[in-house]
Design a protein that fits this description.
heterodimer; A: mainly alpha; MetI-like fold; 1% strand; B: 290 residues; mainly alpha; 2 domains; globular
């Protein structure tokens, strides 16, 4: 009897056919809507495809055009995306960590209230919030920002915030930072709250003198997994929200391409000009960018 | 040796040192909170306050006028708002429930069962955390077209079901359950399905709440599917309808209606987070990329 039980477990240790039934629904959907689209995007990026005729193979032509002939991409879209992603990704991430750490130093009630305030912007949904920002940054003197600045005497006439190419990108960055405290932020807060008190006591005995040293030597190293998760979420979030420029200014392309990000470029070529092959090449570049950024973060936290 | 005592994390009592932190966080909290306060107030403003000059954030004489206008505006259109609400509720409910089962089943298999290809799936899923859905909107469109599910609920539902982040968090939570517990049940003759139903599901309630929050937020505010995969107006969702409102009436009078719409979209999200917050944070404590 005992022997039979043991063989049963041993058999289970090796492989387990019911596992495939457990995995099947997820894997099916994962393949259909995440993996295959990525493969198709890579495939299409080597073709010319207008959705009506069959795609024709063009080799690296789309990529060559993207890098050499697409002035808008090289002069506006790429710099905009890099500036935006560099500020919103790492910026939002550092901000999330500082806030999460600050919250962990508070007692339960104020912490809970503040957590909800910080998290609620990422709950409103990308489209909803643009309406709100369009009211706040409205270009006439009814706009809230214009009104405050004029009252304070900083400006004399209302500024067309969302149409002026000088201000669109900074406003996009502010809006994106505003909604950057999402899942990653909560993960980091939970990670700090969950850390072992004894380590901190030991560190205090070993000569950690202030909160700053404590954060650098204890908090961050003990919650590396959450830090890395937060970093990936921050980067993905930054790229995912890239369409806000078009929503804020109300036009694609954005005025003077000032708020044009790589996501808008995909939409522009894919759904406005129907050059799907070219749009797919831009998509592949976007996926590569996210991957490179995430790897950089990974290195930062793994090797320390 | 006097001075720093160490560990101020999750204090039980209020101390003076915490005032510094509050002063540090307060300006940021105001920056984050004002737009929310603003939208709530705007939704209840009567028309003369919307037009008031200089513009005010707070509402003085709250009214439900904007909400009734929102419903009336949709009555004069071909499709009543209730239709969009109905669509959104159906789609949201199906996505949330289906993704709970998919993520927990897959999480259980990846954490506790042995099978070929497990490590590959784990690695690919971890890579997919970096997946940016907007990058593949074109291939997704082609696939949905090929499957022949354009203009059906399935076009809203299917693309959102596989949630790499959800599976990732659930799997890590199941990792905390001791193997001995499952082996004991196995020796008592329980099948894998029974173990999943009787042991795993009851033990991972916090992880389930997490999936609910993540899935709900994704689907409830999603406009991509209505924009790209649905041509039939009567099949579109509330999020899409509210989005068109904001594009169509960008006038001062329209602002109140838009704010009311945003509030309707925001409240369910907030409620779900408030209800499930504790278990959500519990799951997050065990999350992370190792």
């Amino acid at each position: 009897m005992a022997l039979r039980k043991r063989t049963k477990i041993a058999k289970r240790e090796q492989s387990n056919s019911s596992a495939y039934w457990f995995m099947a629904p997820y894997v099916l959907m994962f393949l259909t809507f995440i993996i295959i689209p990525m493969v198709v995007a890579i495939g299409l990026s080597f073709t010319s495809f207008n959705t009506i005729q069959m795609p024709t193979f063009k080799g690296f032509l789309n990529y060559i055009n993207l890098l050499t002939a697409d002035d808008v991409f090289m002069q506006k879209v790429l710099p905009n995306t890099v500036i935006y992603a560099l500020i919103v990704g790492p910026g939002g991430y550092v901000l999330s960590f500082i806030v999460a750490w600050g919250l962990s130093q508070l007692t339960s009630v104020p912490r809970t209230i503040l957590t909800i305030i910080f998290y609620s912007p990422s709950m409103t949904g990308a489209t909803a919030m643009t309406v709100l920002w369009r009211i706040i940054f409205s270009g006439d003197q009814m706009g809230y920002v214009n009104n405050w600045l004029m009252k304070l005497g900083i400006i004399d006439e209302p500024i067309l915030w969302l149409v002026d190419s000088r201000y669109l990108l900074p406003i996009m960055i502010i809006v994106a930072l505003w909604s950057s405290m999402g899942v990653g932020f909560l993960a980091m807060l939970a990670g700090i709250l969950n850390s072992d008190e004894e380590i901190y006591e030991a560190a205090a005995i070993d000569g950690v003198k202030n909160r700053f040293q404590e954060v650098i030597y204890i908090t961050i190293p003990t919650m590396k997994p959450q830090m890395l998760f937060g970093a990936v979420m921050a980067i993905v979030g930054a790229f995912q929200n890239g369409a806000i420029g078009v929503q804020l200014s109300g036009s694609n392309p954005t005025p003077n391409y000032a708020g044009q990000l790589i996501v808008n470029h995909i939409e522009d070529y894919g759904f406005i000009r129907y050059e799907m092959g070219y749009a797919a090449a831009v998509s592949v570049v976007l996926l590569l960018m996210v991957w490179v950024f995430s790897k950089l973060f990974g290195k930062l936290f793994r090797e320390k | 040796m006097a001075g720093y005592k160490g560990s101020n994390i999750n204090p039980k009592k209020f101390e003076r040192g915490q005032i510094k932190i509050i002063i540090l966080l307060l300006p940021l909290a105001i920056f984050m909170g004002i737009p929310i306060v603003f939208i709530v107030c705007h939704a209840f403003k009567p028309i003369d306050e919307l037009f008031a000059f200089p513009p005010q954030i707070l509402v003085h004489k709250p009214t439900l006028e904007n909400f009734s206008k929102l419903f009336k505006a949709s009555q004069s259109a071909d499709i009543p708002m209730s239709r969009y609400v109905f669509n959104s509720i159906i789609v949201t409910a199906v996505v949330v429930i289906a993704s709970i089962f998919m993520s927990t089943m897959a999480g259980y298999a990846l954490s506790k069962l042995k099978f070929k290809g497990k490590n590959t799936i784990l690695e690919v899923n971890n890579m997919a955390l970096m997946f940016v859905a907007v990058a593949v909107m074109i291939p997704r469109y082609l696939i949905i077209d090929m499957l022949g599910i354009k203009d059906t609920y399935l076009a809203h539902i299917l693309p959102l079901l596989a949630m790499p982040v959800g599976l990732f968090l659930v799997k890590q939570f199941i990792d905390q359950i001791p193997d001995a517990l499952i082996e004991a049940a196995y020796i008592d003759g329980a099948s894998d399905f029974k173990i999943y139903r009787k042991i795993i599901l009851p033990l991972i309630k916090p992880a389930i709440s997490t999936t609910v929050i993540l899935a709900f937020q994704q689907v409830w505010t999603n406009v991509e599917s209505s924009n790209l995969y649905i041509n039939n107006e009567s099949m579109k969702t509330l999020a899409f309808y509210l989005n068109t409102l904001s594009n169509a009436n960008n006038t001062v009078a329209g602002q109140g209606i838009q704010a009311a719409g945003i509030l309707i979209q925001f409240i369910p999200n907030l409620l779900i987070f408030l209800i499930l917050r504790k278990s959500f944070m519990n799951t997050m404590a065990h999350s992370g990329i190792k």
